[in-house]
Amino acid sequence: MHSPNNSFQILIDDEVVTEGSLLEDFHPSVNPAKEIDDPNDSKPETWVDEAQIADPTAVKPEDWDDNQPFQIVDETVCSFNCVTVETTILIEHVIGRHA
To answer: Which of 7, 40, 85, 97 reaches 20 to 30 Å from 23, CA-CA?
Structure first.
């Protein structure tokens, strides 16, 4: 039997033989850990912990201009600024851009 509070009972011939929490006492766990630790794992000797690794061979194209914006806005796209209120979406502003 299972209850809404995540407790369980195992009955045999209408007698409780085991009971407890599905989250703590049930094996294997109903909610297993997202990651199971492996005590034997290790990083390779060449592992780098930095989020980004510089590429020493990377070069910018000849026509690269550092003064240009990082991203160019597409003027042909309509965009919406929306706010969610409970289950209703209210459109605050509609900005129409056409070429």
So the answer is: 40
The secondary structure of the chain in percent helix, strand, coil, rounded to multiples of 5, reads 0, 30, 70
Q: Cα separation of 79 and 92, whole Å?
A: 11
Per-block mean pLDDT, blocks of 10 residues, the chain (99 long): 77 89 77 80 89 88 86 72 53 48
- Round to whole Å and give the CA distance between 99 and 44: 54
User: Angle at CA 67, nearest 5°, toward 66 and 70?
Assistant: 75
pLDDT of residue 69: 80
- 30 to 22, 25, 36: CA distances (angstroms): 6, 9, 14
Which residues neighbour 26 within 8 Å (Cβ) at sequence distance 6 or greater? 8, 20
Residue pair 29/19 in contact by the 8 Å Cβ criterion = no
